[in-house]
Amino acid sequence: RNMSSAGPEGRKKMRECNGLIDSLVYYIQGAIADHEPNDKATENCVCILHNLSYQLEIELPESYAQSIYMQRRSTPSNDKTPGCFGTRSRKVKEKQQDTPLPEEKSNPRGVESLWHSTLIRIYLSLIAKSTRNYTQEASLGALQNLTAGTGPMPFAVARTVVQKANGLPSIRTMLHVSHPAVKKTAVSLLRNLSRNTSLQNDIAREVLPDLVSVLPESVLASDVVCETTASICYTLYNLTQSSSHNARLLLSANGLPKIIAISMNDSNVFSKASRAASVLLYSLWSHTDLHSAYKK
């Protein structure tokens, strides 16, 4: 577990170690099957996998990545096919959201397991069943890592979490835990998921009221609370920017007074949350059909 946080070279060596990832996944599967999701070894295994999934999209060799994620659509000859991993432009991001992926391998091996739906479901199972904060945080953090990029893999993982594995109820529960780091990681994961336009309505329907409910009345607490608050505001921004319906949902959840109060907090320490709330307010005002409701 310590070695897995030793930086890019350490992660590379461990990902390439024959049988290591498979053994970690095998152990966790056994712990879940035996109804023992709270033992220390399971926590260690999940924390290692969390660390090995960090910057996975960027650090995978391009040749390896492209051999797995070749586009099945035929592209015009004058259109340059973007690299599957590590691309960061907005146009590429929008284009790749709808890029179809090859069928998953039924028996993934090694590094392939890190983004496979089997492991995604394991993380969601641990989020739901484990009561160890570190195990919950590492499971959420691994999913956060896997959904952080702009290539096909993060969007495929996001679709699996939201639509195929029905993971939102478990993530929503983590918004209400008392452990600040777990809550912060759950919000960061939702922020990543909310970037995928095809999932925004599902996410808004399932968790938008909960996001509003955990917003503080004003930001007068720790840095972790400030960062979590900013992350919630940006998630709500993603969910409401293009949807008047979702903006109305935020309004009906009594989110507006909280967001206004956060935006008016002029303390330098909490400027990140204040700025995020202001960006959200500006975006909400763009829905002209809601102006009368806002004024009321």
TrEMBL record:
One of its GO terms (cellular component) is cytoplasm. GO terms for biological process: cell-cell adhesion; desmosome organization; heart development; intermediate filament bundle assembly; protein localization to plasma membrane. It is found in: Cell junction. Residues 94-107 have a biased composition (Basic and acidic residues). Its main location: other. InterPro entries: ARM-like, ARM-type_fold, Armadillo, Plakophilin/d_Catenin. Residues 71-109 are annotated as: Disordered. Residues 71-80 have a biased composition (Polar residues). SMART domains: ARM (SM00185). Keywords: Cell adhesion, Cell junction, Repeat. Coiled coil: none annotated. Belongs to the beta-catenin family. This is PKP2 protein. It comes from Rhinopomastus cyanomelas.
